[in-house]
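Q: Got a minute? One more chain.
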Amino acid sequence: MSSRGEGTAVVLQSPMRIKGKCTIEMLSSLADMQSRMVDGRKHSLKQRSGVSAGDKDGKSQSGLSLYMRENMKCKRCGGPMKLERGFKSGKFYAKCTVKACGETELVDKGFVNHYLCVKQARCPKCKSNLEARISKFGIYIQCDRGHTIKLDEV
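A: Always. Here it is, folded:
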């Protein structure tokens, strides 16, 4: 093996010993991450915008799923649409969140490309540009170097 970065990288996790005056308070605040003490006052932590939001079903949403819920409306009733995946086919589609409506439609390639452009999404493996594409198996996302990503992973 040469010393020019060839080979495999090994990451080791090591236990940490924390010493200090306020160790218990620090560990307690790290454990629940709901609030923090600043100048003797308790402040609640705010959720970062655009990261995730609760779904009515109790599932959290983020990324394209959250963007779709906020920006795509049902053509029949005007309700918000959510990203769903078919059980048998595995294809992604948009489904109306209004139970009485239940309208479904295929996810539009242009909508996904707009999301990728607005959010400036990059490939998690090589940091290159992403583009939505369509195959006989449905819509998917591919980077310039050929890595593929599923819609629910972006």
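A: Residues 47-59 have pLDDT under 50 and may be disordered.
Q: Perfect, thanks.
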